[in-house]
Amino acid sequence: MSETDPTPGQHHDAVLTEPLDAPAAAEVTLDPAVDADLDAKREDALRAGLAEYELEDEDLALLGGELSDGEGGGPAAPLPVLAVIGRPNVGKSTLVNRILGRREAVVEDKPGVTRDRVSYPAEWAGRNFMVVDTGGWETGVAGMEARVAEQAEIAISLADAILFVVDATVGPTGTDERVVKLLRKAGKPVVLCANKVDGPRVEASAAELWSLGLGEPHPVSALHGRGTGDLLDAAMAALPTVSAHGVAIPEGGPRRVALVGRPNVGKSSLLNKVLGSERVVVDSVAGTTRDPVDEVVELKGKTWVFVDTAGIRRRVHQTSGADFYASLRTQAAIEKAEVAVVLLDASVKITEQDTRVITQVIEAGRALVIAYNKWDLMDEDRRPFLEREIEKDLVQVQWAPRVNFSARTGWHTDKLVPALERSLASWDLRISTGKLNAFLGELVAAHPHPLRGGKQPRILFATQASTRPPRFVVFSTGFLEAGYRRFIERRLRETFGFEGTPISISVRVREKRKR
Length: 515
Prior knowledge:
single chain; alpha/beta; GMP Synthetase, Chain A, domain 3; Rossmann fold; 3 domains; six-stranded mixed beta sheet; 15 strands; elongated
């Protein structure tokens, strides 16, 4: 489906107010109140017919229950920000995981695993705050390491207080002393953490850190949890109750967008372009991003949370080390998001990895937008042929809106938000039970289910059990084949839109009550 194609979702409001076979103008302009009354009567009549069939408690709960719409809400006030700073491999991410009480940040026993500044909501002693994990800060470095250090410096400037982590087993180094100068210049409250103090013998080494001039070093073992309570008490004392840098989140929470795809397709470049700043580290080396990076951004008058994720390389069980944990975090980011933008590289043919990423999003039940990056590199003469190839490659997800853009130049990135809004509107779309059954009645009359073994299953009643994604339950006298369910799904999309969202149709076979 190309960007210029008319999309069914754009017209679903009009479709929903018209009878399916209404040829006359008078029927099309039927009073909405009368229309709703007819729907309600149709629903009551069909539901009364179900009384003759054996229904389980779960069926009755579904028929009488309210629509499930997923979760909403979120914190309204900006939370104070605590940034965890230090040179590479001193245990910053391990300490962040200890503060959170779960393994959230990617950790590996080698320097340079964390590259971006990553924010996580945390809580200690009844106080909520944001903890920011950063990459290792170094001087005299170039390339990716220089950009990692730059992100750490930005984290310092945007924090309300700093947790400065030093390796107590090594003692203060020249790099640590340069970090201290940076912290003094920033003028933020600093809590000094002497990490890797696993026992009393190392505590004497931790005392050497008084020489840094940052006050009392707090001996801690982030790996084992030793001393972290006292450290967090000191951090809470330094952290203001009202943030000067946190971002206020609007009532109800912004829509969450996950940027997913295989490595090096331009996810981080797209996030930086949307934000208008170098928020995440970008490098030509595949797999630069490891931790999901959340960023609140305002686009076209609406607040969104964009989540940059690690590239999905291969099957998770075939990865190892940091890549393995990055893959797990990406799956979790998809499940936390409401809509996923799957980025594909227009300069290369679609791969099995790309197909797997799309499947991952659909199986998670998230709204979907397909985004082809590097479109500006395509020759004008090549584009019509590429369009046909794409339609063939994405035949299973023709319902997903597609955007062709360039993350490097920003060309057509403005088309991303309208595509996201269409997908989310379909993800939230609710079809009234009366209209749904009228639609199915006409569909079955025109295209009945094929006979199997001399019997033909009859559809008794259908209802939309939930949204986010739309899930429909069909009661019938026999099993509906997968091909017929796909046919119903296709006609649902043609009639009501549902552009950009997966649809689930489940069948419950029920028999007549025995007299």
